[in-house]
Amino acid sequence: MSSYLIFWLVGFATLWTGLRLFDDEVLLIAALIVGSGLVFIGLLSAPTGLQIAIEVALVASLFHLCMECIKRGDRA
């Protein structure tokens, strides 16, 4: 198993666990920061083709979200 998949698995598991289990804000913020960091490290260690595909998907989804805001007239 590739190292980036392990980072993603642990990172997303940490994010999910933090959102499901912790009611205390400090623990929740700590779990979200650690999980986001692990997901980011997994993205950095992923192959270049996969990085580009993920970036294109994120830009396309953000573009779609911006177009929805423009249609509604909410430009803020």
Notes on the structure:
The chain is mainly alpha-helical. It has two domains: 1-45; 48-76. It has three helices and no strands. The chain has helices at residues 3-21, 25-44, 48-72. The model has no long low-confidence stretch (mean pLDDT 90).
Secondary structure tally, helices: 3
The number of domains is 2
Query: Roughly what percent helix?
Result: over 70%
Determine the structural class based on helices, strands and strand pairing: mainly alpha
User: Which percent range describes the beta-strand content?
Assistant: under 5%
Radius of gyration from CA coordinates: 16 Å
Averaged pLDDT, please?
A: 90
Shape: flat
Element string (H = helix, E = strand): HHH
Number of beta strands: 0
Main sheet makeup: none
Q: Compute the separation of the termini in Å.
A: 43 Å
Low-pLDDT sequence parts: none
In short:
By secondary structure, the protein is an all-alpha fold. Helices cover 84% and strands 0% of the residues.
Element layout with pairings:
Elements: H1 3-21, H2 25-44, H3 48-72
Quick tags:
76 residues; mainly alpha; 3 helices
